[in-house]
Amino acid sequence: MRNFFKRLIYDAKKYALLHILEDRDFEELAKQEIAAKHKDEELLRRFEQLTRIADVMLPEYRFKWPQVDWWSDAWFNEYARRFDEDKSHNIDRRWMVHQLLRLTGRLDGDTAECGLYSGSTSWLICHYNQAQGCNRTHFGFDSFSGLSEPGEADGDHWQQGFLSYPVEKVERNLAQFESLVLKQGWIPERFDDPDVVDRQFSFVHIDVDLYQPTSDSIRFFYPRMQEGGVIVCDDYGSNICPGATRAIDEYMQNCPEKMIVMSGGGGFIIKGLEVSG
Ligand SMILES: C[S@@+](CC[C@H](N)C(=O)[O-])C[C@H]1O[C@@H](n2cnc3c(N)ncnc32)[C@H](O)[C@@H]1O
């Protein structure tokens, strides 16, 4: 009842305000408002139907409200379509990389990705570096022959050779960026290259799915991060990547930073920012 009166007062105020406008404007605004209301109601009606179906088919699945501005971000959607990812299940994590990069704009230090697949996350990083005028080189480390052999810590989801993507195609996907160096080889082989080993980093994306290369990556990059630099581990907290989560937790055990787990998957740390356990 209280809500009903609140709504009534709100509508009365709004229409009083609208009456002050000319008749023509009022009509146009009213039409727009009715169309928007119907659109919203229709969206919610369909969404509720979908949620009910999912309750039967996949009861543990949690739907999220669909009314979020970033879903209609034109630039981001164009980027996602470039990698055929606009409807992909990875899209939340891509958005978070796009956001987390913004924490690092003023930092010195290069950027890196361990595990590129088609290069879609590296594209975001390189684009950010270029658009912000950051004088950074982006290093991409990958076998370009897919995953290495999973170990005991990795469960049974993965197989050697999964997610192989040819280096020539990655080069093509990232051809517009000049300050990019791709390092082909099994992690950690190329970390010791003379043009890498003494670098400092501001943003690093680790996405190799397995225990050993995740462990090698965090061990190499953490000490080389600038204060305030961000390390994202895409696989952290995913129950199909138990080895990646374990590798990060083992290494971070005695570090003041702890992984912040993201709701859409993955986690990140900010170097030098202490986090409670
Ligand atoms: C999940 S994909 C990466 C997805 C990518 N970050 C993106 O944004 O689309 C995993 C990648 O890790 C690479 N990889 C896995 N194990 C590796 C290892 N031991 N050494 C080098 N690359 C590895 C695979 O070749 C594959 O490209």
Describe this structure in words.
The model has no long low-confidence stretch (mean pLDDT 91). The radius of gyration is 24 Å and the shape is globular. α7 runs parallel beside α8. A seven-stranded mixed beta sheet has the order 3-2-1-4-5-7-6, sandwiched between helices. The chain has helices at 2-20, 23-57, 74-82, 91-100, 120-131, 167-173, 211-221, 242-252; strands at 110-114, 138-142, 180-184, 201-206, 225-233, 260-261, 267-270. It has 277 residues and is of the alpha/beta class. It folds into two domains: 2-57; 73-270, 3-Layer(aba) Sandwich (Rossmann fold). The structure holds S-adenosylmethionine. Residues 115-118, 120-121, 142-143, 146-148, 163-165, 186-187, 207-210, 213 line the site of S-adenosylmethionine.
**Tally of separate helices:** 8
Number of domains: 2
Task: Enumerate the spans where pLDDT stays under 50 for 5 or more consecutive residues.
Answer: none
CATH topology of the largest domain: Rossmann fold
Rg measurement, Å: 24 Å
Can you give the helix content as a percent range? 40-55%
Distance between the termini: 45 Å
The helix-strand sequence is: HHHHEHEHEEHEHEE
The largest sheet, given as strand count, sense and whether it forms a barrel, is:
7 strands, mixed
Strand content: 5-15%
What shape does the CA trace take?
globular
Second-tier CATH architecture of the largest domain: 3-Layer(aba) Sandwich
How many runs of DSSP E, i.e. beta strands? 7
State the CATH superfamily name of the largest domain. Answer: Vaccinia Virus protein VP39
Cross-sheet strand order for the largest sheet: 3-2-1-4-5-7-6
Overall pLDDT confidence = 91
What structural class do you assign from the helix and strand content?
Answer: alpha/beta
